[in-house]
Structure formats: structure tokens, C-alpha cells
Amino acid sequence: MKPRYKTYIRINLISLVFVIVSFISVTLAWFAYSGLANITTEIDVKAWYIELEKDGETVSNDIVISLSEIYPGMDIVTETVSIKNLGDSDAQVNYSIVSARILDDPADKYTVDGETITSAYVNDRLAHEYPFRINMNLTRNYVLSKGEESLFEVSVSWPLDSDNDALDSLWGTEAYKFYLNEAEQQDLDPTYVVKSPIKIRISVTAEQYIESSTVSDPNYNLGDSVLFDVVNNTRCEEVSSICLKTYIIDVNNKLGDNTVTLLADPTVTYLNTTYNNYNSTLASITTTWAVDTRGLSANDLLNIVSTDVINSFLIRDSLSDAIIGNLKYNNRMSTEINRAISYNGYFRFINERFEQLVATNCYWTNTEYSANNAFASKKNNEVNAMIYGEDKTTSCNVVPVILASKSNL
């Protein structure tokens, strides 16, 4: 393949600013619990105390994340804010994009109204529709009282070579023009406050955790291990031929969900087979099981690894690695899978973050990659694992997915 040459304008002193407003709706307050045992019971007053922490230092509600420059090939810039609950009442946490401005083009200004323009829509565009990629994720949608923290993560990247030279050059030039225009306005009026070329307003809120069908179920977290008896359809205490070690693969299981999705431990060999025998082999493995099962899909794996907006990448030959990013909006999942296939690429993730998916030997999904290949996963090295296209004639493990009723857990 011939080498490719491109010229980029490096833009200095451009601020990329995220203003996180209303980060916590109430940082320190008191409120009373309802649900009294009887009318004479005193109201139980709970302390509400949420602390935000970045780089080991406590931060205020308004957080500004800024860059001195942004350009193709830049190092990935990341910020992580820890959300801790130091009070004695559980809290639910959510984030949403309020508005976004990319330079000064009206077509790239977004004000979320919840109807015509939603937070999910803007989130998706920032992650995929510009040569630079802005991704964010909340690791848990709750913080229990004095329990494990939730992390709000942001990454900003601009791959050097996205295979769209025209788009890279266009945005590099437009950003440079924006910077010059702002500098000129300040020269004319020294009191003029130079605008950042990109500004995103985010609202992250913590509220009292009130049980409802739509809130996260803290009993079933992504990656948690569950010992499950597949013959008696219940939890069990010791691994055996019917008591399997499994992992929860629901990214955000809700209280209203009746089932939990479990992946059997992929390090255990159930049955190895070629891809064309996948369905019959899965049926053979589960024939005596008394629980609902299904095949593992590439979507299952990507739903999980894409939650890491810092270290999970789409890898393609002769092109820059690109953060996978948010795949939740509309058909974005299938679009990104097809992008990987069209470039003969694969997805890479960190072993340490997703230990429940890491296996030395390959295991199949039921998702085709091409006429001759299907998606599989295996450990790449001591640091990374991958989701990739494996030759259909290769013998790989078949790992069942279990749909366990919560009533049996």
C-alpha cells in the first residue's frame, strides 16, 4: 500500500471546554423517608452527602475540563470524576447533555429540548459524526451509602488518519479560521472574551434513590459473578458440572427487569466446534438445562466493552486506532460493526477492566463477520483482548448465555 501524506494545521491555544452544571442537584441536604411502619413511628431523617473527586482532590459542582490545543493525531485527553456517597442514604445518578456548540456554524449548535433534539442524539453525534471524538460514560447509575463510587469518564480524541482526509482537513481549517476570527475580535475590543471553539454543557444529577421499575438494580451489576445451577435453575454454592460460574452481562439491569443475563465463564471449555455447527453445539450443551438460554452475539460483547470510553478501540490496518465510543443510539451498533468489517478490522479492550470476557482460547459469537469468518473473542496478550473475525473452520469454544429469572436468584 502506498504511503499517505497529509498536511495538518496545528491549532494552538484553543480551549475545548466542558462545563458541567448542576452536577449534583443537592450536595448537602436533609430529607425524610416515607413508608412508616405505623402512624406513631418517628420519621427517619437521613443525611445526604455526595462528594466529587478528581485526581484525588475534592472538586466543586461546576467542573471545567479544558485543553490548550486540539488537532489530528493528538494524544487522547481524558478526565475522570469520582462520585462518592458519604451520607447514609442511597442515591441515583444520571447525566445528560444540555447543549453543545462546535465552532460557530448554526448547523453544529445543539440545544437539547428532549423532543426534536435529545441528549442521546447529541451524544451520538459527538462520538461519531466529527473527525474528533468526544465520549462520556457513567460507570454506575447509582451510588450506595458509603458504598462503591461511580465514575464519570470523558475522553477527547482526534485520530491522525480516519481515512477521510477531506473531513479532517475541513475541520482543521475551520477551527483555524475560528481561532483567527476570535483573536481579531479581541484585537478590536480588548474587553472581548474569546470563545472556546467547542463547548458542551452537561448536567449530572444525584437524587434520592427511590425504588421504581426504571432505576438501576444494585443487586445485579455488570461483571458481577454468580454461581448458577443450570439444572435446578437456582443459585448454588460450589462450582460443579451443573453449578456454573457465570458473569452478569447486562450493562444496566433495572429493578423492573424480570431476568438477568448471565454469560457462562468463557475460560471453561464447554464444547469446541466450527462456526457452522454453532447452533447444534449450543443445543447439545444446554439440552439438560432447566433455564432459558441463547447464543452470544457480537452486540453483547460490544455493549460491554464500549462502556470504556478511554481504552476500548476499533483497530484497522494502516489507519489510526479509534475509540469505539457510545453505541446506544438507533442503529449505531450495526453501523460500527459494519465499519469494522469493511476495513477488515477488530475491536480491542483491556483485560483488567473486563475480566469476565477474557479467555486464552477463542470462543464464538453467533454473529457473522463475512462469508468465511464469524465474530469471536480471545485474549490478545497480557494487556488486551479482542473481538475479531475468526475463520469459520476454526474450532472455538461455544459459551452459552443464560437468561435467569430474578425470582430464582
Residues in helix, %: 10-25%
Distance between the termini: 55 Å
What is the quaternary state of this protein?
Answer: single chain
Sum up the overall morphology in one term.
globular
How would you sum up the major sheet? 6 strands, mixed
User: Which band does the percent of strand residues land in?
Assistant: 25-35%
Q: Provide the structure class.
A: alpha+beta
Number of strands: 26
Mean pLDDT: 85
Rg, nearest Å: 24 Å
Please, how many helices?
Answer: 5
Catalogue the unreliable spans.
1-16, 21-48, 60-66
Question: What can you tell me about this protein's structure?
Answer:
With 409 residues, this protein is an alpha+beta fold. It contains five helices and 26 strands. The chain has helices at 119-128, 165-188, 278-286, 298-305, 332-342; strands spanning 16-21, 28-32, 45-54, 57-59, 63-65, 77-85, 91-102, 109-111, 133-138, 142-143, 150-157, 198-208, 225-229, 234-235, 243-248, 259-264, 272-273, 292-294, 313-315, 322-323, 346-350, 363-368, 373-379, 384-391, 396-397, 401-405. The strands form five sheets. Strands 1, 5, 7, 8, 10 and 12 form a six-stranded mixed beta sheet that branches. Strands 2, 3, 4, 6, 9 and 11 form a six-stranded antiparallel beta sheet that branches. Strands 14-13-15-16-26-18 form a six-stranded antiparallel beta sheet, with no helix packed on it. The chain starts with 15 loop residues before the first strand and ends with a strand.
Key attributes of the depicted protein:
34% strand; six-stranded mixed beta sheet; six-stranded antiparallel beta sheet; 15% helix; 409 residues; alpha+beta
